[in-house]
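@here heads up, posting the sequence + SMILES for the flavin-adenine dinucleotide run so it's all in one place. Ping me if the SMILES looks off, I pulled it from an old spreadsheet.
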Amino acid sequence: MGKKIVVIGSGLAGSLICNELVESCEVTLLEQGRKDEIAYPPVDFMKKHFGAVKTFCISEGGTTNIWDNGLIPINPHDVLSETFRRVLHDAGRYTDKAAGSLFLNHYSAEYNAVCSEMSHVAGSTGAFTDGVDCLLYPKNYKGLRVNSKVRAVYNVSDLDVVVENGRVRTVVYFAEDGRQTVETDCVVVCAGALGTPRIVNKILTAFGSSVEQAGTGLADHPMGFVGKIKARHDFQKQIQQMALRNKGDYICRTAIRLKSECGRYTCCAFFRPAVTMQNKLSIYKYKSLLGASRAGERIKNAFSWKLFHPDILAEIYSHVFSAQIPGRVFNILMLFEQKRGSSRVYYEGSRIKVDWRITDEEMDLYNAVLKKLHDMLLPISEELVIQIPSTEDWLWSAAHHSGTISLGSGSDSLIDENLRLKACENVFVCDGSVIQEHSYANTGLTIGQLGMRLADHIMKKDMA
Ligand SMILES: Cc1cc2nc3c(=O)[nH]c(=O)nc-3n(C[C@H](O)[C@H](O)[C@H](O)COP(=O)(O)OP(=O)(O)OC[C@H]3O[C@@H](n4cnc5c(N)ncnc54)[C@H](O)[C@@H]3O)c2cc1C
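bot reply: prediction finished. Complex structure tokens:
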């Protein structure tokens, strides 16, 4: 009989880890959501709202049921924390395995080839001095599912642990048939950046800690449409290719990399389809709402006169046909880097409290980055309009919730480089919460890489 593993949460990280471990271990999965149902837990925003759309959900597959499956690695060179950079470097070995499980095979080869192609295309404009990066979207993808060999229990609540000699020996939970217990050699917490701190704090309390330590450091990508460009005739082809490149099994969107003046922050801009040069926040917010909602919600949101705005129709056409509309006008979509700071998640009963902020210092830095982008684009533009100064009203969450568990060598860090909870021999944490820095990169591929790396570590580790 293999090691007994309990995985908490069956989202992106939890599903991949279960599916990796189940071939050699006895895996029990405890998931808060009901089987075959997607639910959105109540969230109170203490300051800035993430945005109008739901940015996470509970269910088998977790947030992969509502995501876009765009895959891009975090470039370790953009990361300041030495410890996290080392972890990312090491997790690079698992890129193809993670991407394959996320519906895109031979990822590294495709990514390197398309990055080189698009660097050449972008380089021929002479404009993009900080380089470019590529975000790959497989055309066929679905929510993740857990292998049937995993003992999966859904609709669980009130998780707790029994500890003995520095280890968690038993996990206690409530399910439809009442209070249950499961003996374990190892626990992996994968409840997402907004769910994991609750469980980690519970485990720390079981080990005698009197203060809630997990939850601070919440970071996201403040994201928004900030302007429009009408490209000069001689640069139209390059910009169109950067906006969207159909590569058969996947499409590629090219990001313009933008380093802040201090060099500490790396942000990016994408070109998106548009028709008019109007720079209207209400249309941008509607576009984001429509783009990020799913199924019934999307149909409900479609009932608006804004659906017929030419810029919205252009985005819909491009999305449905994976094709760029002919023309020279493009939206500019920015993703700004945010570092771990005092933003945090905490809990009151079943409610999740999110205290997310964009600080004045961040806004100043973002405006300087926008000015840099403006100066880059001016020589290749016939017309250019960018909202400078921008305010936080123009920005909302890219749903890349991260950073709520600290990793590193400092005394305030909760997990080590193997993602093990320092206070406990046999508890690991893996999901968006352990991402310490993410430049402009979507987090899904990194979560997958870290999940595969952790599964490998657990299989090799002596858990006795
Ligand atoms: C609309 C949208 C589009 C996105 N597009 C992209 C994209 O294109 N590319 C990209 O890289 N990223 C994208 N993301 C972000 C992406 O979803 C996340 O990076 C990723 O899914 C997070 O994975 P996770 O494992 O950290 O958490 P989740 O997938 O959210 O999983 C957490 C799981 O834990 C469970 N859980 C929570 N609390 C408990 C508890 N107490 N007990 C038991 N179980 C619990 C939840 O039910 C859930 O199943 C997008 C997000 C959204 C919302």
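MO: DSSP finds eleven helices and 19 strands in the chain.
MO: One more: The mean pLDDT is 93.
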